[in-house]
Amino acid sequence: METVSCDTKQPDYERVLRRHQLWPLRRGQVRTLQVNVGKLCNQACHHCHVDAGPRRTEIMTRATAERVIALLAASPGVEAIDLTGGAPELNPHFAFLVEQARAVGRQVIVRCNLTVLLVPGMEHLPQFYRDQEVQLICSMPCYTAENVDRQRGQGVFDRSIEALRLLNRLGYGCAGSPLTLHLVYNPLGAFLPPPQPALETRYREELGRLFGIEFHHLFTITNMPIKRFADQLQRWGKYDEYMGLLVNHFNPHTVPGLMCRSLVSVGWEGTLYDCDFNQMLELPIRWGGPVARPLTAWDVARIDEIDGREIRTASHCFGCTAGAGSSCGGALA
């Protein structure tokens, strides 16, 4: 990790990558199709980069869901579909996406906020996950009620513990079980996550001792300075300070493992992006030709058609390369 001297008001990610001879940043083989099925959520967390909540109306249609499955089936190099939101389970076509992805032999990952399992009408979800052998990655930003409720809302910690116990009873997260359950930590403020291995040990000790909870791994994820968290930073008067933290902790060793090199993000309306963060900032993959336009799921026959393309970057990308790095799968270095 190196200190980078840079104007933190308008940090230039491309310039920093060039300095380390890491530009241009290009895709490798796409192995994960991450699908944002909409912004509807039963929660409205302070750090949410999607700006999701109970009043959002952006929802993926059945036609778009069918196109996603057709594209997945035509792309043998893609190993997994990663469903996110909002709360992806609230999309009316969620079960269709899971079942059809499994039918074409792909791993299904669901990014679950845990409390959605307790929403009326969602009681079937734990058994559905088990039957479909879904891999769960669940938000749990701390092992204490005070910190979780401060970030995600009053009573969320207790409901999350109840949901985790439901999943454990079905075998999720238990030692030796193939039913994968990972937890996700993100900081409660304008700072970087602590070392992932040590924090995982602490989570395991605290959740096991106090509640008997088991899980497989903990992923640490840096809060991205976009949407709701960016607004919060502005209210605190800490936006420039936080950007300076990310810029000055740039770690070139994280660049080879960036998720945008092996993942494609699909928006709820079918537009393709290099990552979920670019999606929220409306920075789509661009289609060539006389007039560049956003690339959509209907513009390609197979996902590997975008292998090797240059990745769009901006100042928020410093969030993925600060310290130990950050991705949907946790730390990078």
Instruction: Assign an overall shape.
Output: globular
The residue fraction in helices comes out at 25-40%
Number of strands: 10
The end-to-end distance, rounded to whole angstroms, is 10 Å
Q: For the largest beta sheet, what order do the strands appear in spatially?
A: 6-5-4-3-2-1-7-8
Question: Helix count?
Answer: 10
Describe, in plain words, how this protein is organized in 3D:
The chain contains ten helices and ten strands. α2 packs parallel to α3. The strands form two sheets. The chain has an eight-stranded mixed β-sheet with strand order 6-5-4-3-2-1-7-8. A hairpin with a 5-residue loop joins β9 and β10 (293-294). It has one domain (28-236, 258-314): TIM Barrel, CATH 3.20.20.70. It is an alpha/beta fold. The chain has helices at residues 13-19, 62-73, 94-103, 125-132, 145-152, 156-169, 196-211, 227-236, 239-248, 276-280, and strands spanning 32-36, 80-84, 107-112, 135-139, 181-185, 217-220, 263-266, 272-273, 286-287, 293-294. It is 30% helix and 12% strand. The longest helix has 16 residues, at 196-211.
Task: Describe the structure concisely for a colleague.
It contains ten helices and ten strands.
Secondary structure elements and pairings:
Layout lengths: L12 H7 L12 E5 L25 H12 L6 E5 L9 H10 L3 E6 L12 H8 L2 E5 L5 H8 L3 H14 L11 E5 L10 H16 L5 E4 L6 H10 L2 H10 L14 E4 L5 E2 L2 H5 L5 E2 L5 E2 L39
Parallel strand pairs: 1-2, 1-7, 2-3, 3-4, 4-5, 5-6
Antiparallel strand pairs: 7-8, 9-10
